[in-house]
């Protein structure tokens, strides 16, 4: 395996570019509330209710989650966890590589369809990397792209081999309701605007996958949380979508060069979430996958982006 970059410490704010104007607009819109909501409110006890029927049918908690300590350790029954020492602190990682693709069917236990929602920067890269990795593992898990009605991206997705005819391209909400793992890769602003319908379409015990913690910050800012009958995980590549794809393709020659990713398990309804998140990251081609939390992810990422992109007076408004 060839490492793209050194593994990164989740405790250090990292620049992870997601520079679409919509994303930044959403960040501005919700920043004040999102950052301040992480104090007192997030320390209240979480009401845990397991719902039936649709995910939205499960009562959305009106108070934000009691945060567990920022543990970097995790357990996985599928992949090998390695300890590394960074700044005199032990951290745990999973090293990637194409030789691990054979483990993907185990990691994705219970998953028949992965819905990749959106075709912006991350969508094309993640959909194609997942499809290629699962094909190499001889898995029959379907990777299906879901797009909004009338989207101009249908043509691009078809050109990449996702088609209505072979059942790998369809409407956004039909794809969400038919998927066991939903990778929500529409813009962060669109996530904030459409989360209710998205949640209502998700199957109970399905898993929502994010590549940014922004939606958590938004939900916290309005006193909500994710529905309790779905898993919530994140895999956040530390690079732009085109690089996630390009390095994966280049890595075919050298067992898996790619882009490192952080991963987080925010909600685990049935014990599968860690393996699924790690499988997603390995399938993307991440040379190193390291643990973080969804909350740490959005805070470090938005601070990082704003620190890089905007002058101090704007950051401190
Ligand atoms: N940019 C990066 O490289 C990067 C890096 C790490 C993490 N992330 C995270 O990955 C996620 C996706 O970001 P991105 O940059 O790849 O995508 P993006 O460019 O922010 O969003 C593009 C996608 O969002 C869809 N979209 C926009 N408004 C919509 C609406 N109202 N309803 C349905 N779909 C809508 C677009 O649909 P159409 O195709 O129809 O226009 C398009 O497919 C975000 O959470 C982001 O923070 C991004």
From TrEMBL:
InterPro entries: KARI, KARI_N, NAD(P)-bd_dom_sf
Coiled-coil zones: none
Any single biological process term in GO: branched-chain amino acid biosynthetic process
Stretches assigned to the KARI N-terminal Rossmann domain: 94-292
Annotated TM spans: none
A Gene Ontology molecular function term of the record: oxidoreductase activity
PANTHER family reported in the protein's UniProt record: KETOL-ACID REDUCTOISOMERASE, MITOCHONDRIAL
Name by which UniProt lists this protein: KARI N-terminal Rossmann domain-containing protein
